[in-house]
Write a structure and sequence with these properties.
single chain; mainly alpha; 2 domains; 3 helices; 84% helix; rod-shaped
Length: 74
């Protein structure tokens, strides 16, 4: 039976490092993809949606709401 010797251990360790780095890259890509998909919903708000939220929070009054809404629709 032949022994792989020191070179065999070196290549095994090299492959282990390669697979570890590959796994880390895949995990990073999955996290990045999930982050982009979940943030896309937040970016799709229209100015009218934002205006309605501001009105609901009480940041602006009804008069301001109507004025801004009129400007946005023009």
């Amino acid at each position: 039976m032949m022994s792989s010797g020191m070179m065999g251990n070196y290549y095994n360790n090299l492959w282990n490092i390669f697979w570890f780095i590959f796994l880390i890259v895949v995990i990073i890509l999955i996290v990045w993809f999930i982050y982009k998909v979940t943030n896309k919903r937040k970016e799709s708000e229209t100015p009218i949606d934002i205006l309605q939220k501001r009105y609901a929070k009480g940041e602006i009054n009804k008069k301001q709401f109507e004025e801004i809404k009129k400007e946005l629709r023009e």
